[in-house]
Design goal:
mainly alpha
Length: about 80
């Protein structure tokens, strides 16, 4: 089982590495689509989360939630999936 704090830290780490111009202070409300602009970035994001959290993420199962939700909402979804 993964903890929400783990997910948020993994997301923040990805943003600091890949998009340092974005602040991670309001990460909860920041939409993934504000940071992730290309499909390759989305794949890299998912791979990063899988590696850091030790889980397998089915991109098809999450679908548009990966882009259309805030990072806080995405973290909640991943925690639910990890149960």
């Amino acid at each position: 089982m993964i903890e929400r704090e783990q997910v948020m830290e993994a997301i923040a780490e990805f943003i600091r590495q890949e998009s340092p111009s974005f602040s991670t202070q309001n990460l909860e409300g920041l939409k993934a689509s504000d940071v992730i602009k290309q499909s390759l970035e989305l794949v890299e994001f998912v791979l990063h989360l899988e590696e850091k959290l030790g889980i397998e993420i089915n991109i098809n199962a999450l679908g548009e939630k990966l882009i259309n939700k805030s990072f806080g909402g995405l973290a909640d979804e991943l925690v639910r999936m990890g149960r």
